[in-house]
Design a protein that fits this description.
Homotetramer. This protein is α/β, with parallel strands linked by helices. The chain has helices spanning 106-121, 135-138, 169-179, 190-206, 232-251, 269-278, 299-310, 347-362, 375-379, 385-403, 423-427, 438-447, 455-463, and strands at 10-13, 18-22, 36-37, 59-61, 73-78, 84-85, 93-98, 125-129, 141-143, 183-188, 211-216, 256-262, 283-285, 312-318, 368-372, 409-414, 417-422. It contains 13 helices and 17 strands. Strands 1, 2, 4, 5, 7, 8, 9, 10, 11, 16 and 17 form an eleven-stranded mixed beta sheet that branches. A four-stranded parallel beta sheet has the order 13-14-12-15, sandwiched between helices.
Length: 472
């Protein structure tokens, strides 16, 4: 795939420590591009809007909690329609591609990009690329119109199909050039956005008037900078159905244990928020928080204690939790999927067997354990109302940005305001739960579980700089 290390950064410095991490613009490498009045000012839907356009200097602050002596800090360019656009509507030939795993809301984003281009800007030539990145050069395309996409938000998955890998940058840009495409909308997670950055670089090197806009997608909510990713609210809501089923099973029988595995390869946001939302969970295990099984203060001891207290319990596990405890399965620990993600062992199934074996071996108590893995049910459902609204804002922000000539950016909310974020900031790291943060403390308080951290581990985590902003 290559890498995006050569991405040219645009940084604007102002007074009092103000820093704007700007996104590229077509005029950065194509001088003297003509501009045109934004057709939104003639759009009936916007006739009652007091302010059509975003001010050219508007920016969104990455850090919202500051002290009186704090510098003004890092900002991103605010998303929204501009007074001037760099494309004539009749000349726009857009395409949309979805990559990576499924996520609630994909079809809503597709629908709103199509409807936004058509209804707001009068764009009628919109292609859907079939089958992810490799679809640019090996698959058929789909002509997308508002009629075609009218009801797709009611379905799960993506009508365009998806795949992992298949990224041949030169072939992709050749296809974009050969088809006369001048706006590319790429929906996908961190690997997909890295690919989008490389595509942008190739387009820039060729001097093509093609805007590349990313829409960040990950059900795990592990994309940095943005407040949250689409599909996350739906995933948490659906996860609670599985937790409720586990709770019903567990409390209906003596010493019942319900184990629920939720998505979260490297981070435990779904498990954490589903636990807080449910209130029926006795123990939440996530990749960011180490734990151990045997001995004083271990998981087995806590399970025994909770069963003696309540007669049942529910354990929620993020899929990436406890991988270090599976050292005996090292033969597959270093394998990767087509997107470069590490293939994980099924820790939920493994720990379920270990819990059964532990209590059977000690003859302390007979337990009845039920294991529930709703992973693919969760990611295949349509998005809920909250995510549908969010997907609409994401899609329209991306459309406004591309029409205004911005390129090489990802659209997303920062502190509640939608902004254009450079690809390098999206790709620089993965967002994770900070276990020394108050939100994780709320989970421990809700479940009344131990942290499972030794004194040395706790001291180490407190010394480390948080990898994401502290949440109130």
């Amino acid at each position: 795939m290559g890498h995006s290390g050569n991405l040219q950064l645009k940084v604007v410095n102002g007074d009092a420590g103000y820093v704007l991490e700007d996104v590229p613009h077509l005029t950065d490498y194509i001088p003297d591009l003509p501009t045109y009045p934004n057709p939104l000012q003639f759009n009936a839907a916007y006739s009652v809007v007091k302010q059509y356009f975003v001010n050219v200097d508007d920016s969104v602050s990455q850090k919202i909690v500051v002290h009186k002596d704090s510098p003004r800090g890092t900002h991103f360019r605010r998303a929204g329609p501009r007074q001037k656009v760099y494309f004539v509507s009749d000349e726009v030939h857009a395409c949309i591609v979805t990559c990576g795993g499924l996520c609630p809301g994909l079809n809503t984003v597709i629908r709103e990009i199509v409807c936004g281009l058509y209804h707001m800007y009068g764009v009628s030539k919109i292609l859907g690329i079939d089958g992810g990145y490799r679809g640019f050069y090996s698959k058929n395309t789909i002509n997308l119109t508002p009629k075609v996409v009218n009801d797709i938000h009611k379905r799960g998955g993506t009508i365009l199909g998806t795949s992992r890998g298949g990224h041949d940058t030169s072939k992709i840009v050749d296809s974009i050039q050969d088809r006369g495409i001048n706006q590319v909308y790429i929906i996908g997670g961190d690997g997909t956005q890295k690919g989008a950055a490389v595509i942008y670089e190739e387009i820039r090197q060729r001097g093509l008037k093609v805007a590349v806009a990313g829409i960040p997608k990950t059900i795990d909510n592990d994309i940095p900078v943005i407040d949250k990713s689409f599909g996350f609210d739906t995933a948490v809501e659906e996860a609670q159905r599985a937790i409720n089923a586990a709770h019903v099973e567990a409390e209906s029988i003596e010493n019942g244990i319900g184990v629920v595995k939720l998505m979260g390869r490297y981070c435990g946001f779904i498990a954490m928020y589903a636990t807080l939302g449910s209130r029926d969970v006795d123990c939440c295990l996530i990749p960011e928080s180490p734990f151990y099984l045997e001995g004083e203060g271990g998981l087995y001891e806590f399970i025994e204690k909770r069963l003696k207290e309540n007669g049942h319990m529910v354990i929620v596990i993020a899929e990436g939790a406890g991988q270090d405890l599976l050292a005996e399965s090292l033969q597959s620990m270093n394998q990767q999927d087509a997107s470069g993600n590490k293939l994980l062992q099924d820790f939920g199934l493994w720990i379920s067997h270990k819990i059964k074996d532990h209590f059977a071996r000690l003859h302390k108590m007979a337990i009845n354990l039920k294991y529930i893995d709703p992973t693919y049910m969760i990611r295949a459902i349509p998005s809920n109302a909250s995510d549908n609204v969010y997907c609409t804002l994401l899609a329209q922000s991306a459309v406004h940005g591309a029409m205004a000539g911005y390129t090489g950016f990802t659209a997303g909310p920062v502190n509640g305001r939608h902004a254009y974020i450079p690809f390098n900031r999206i790709n620089e790291r993965q967002n994770q739960v900070v276990i020394t943060d108050r939100m994780w403390a709320r989970v421990l308080s809700s479940t009344n579980q131990p942290s499972f951290l030794s004194a040395n581990e706790l001291a180490k985590f407190k010394r480390e700089k948080p990898s994401c902003p502290v949440v109130g």
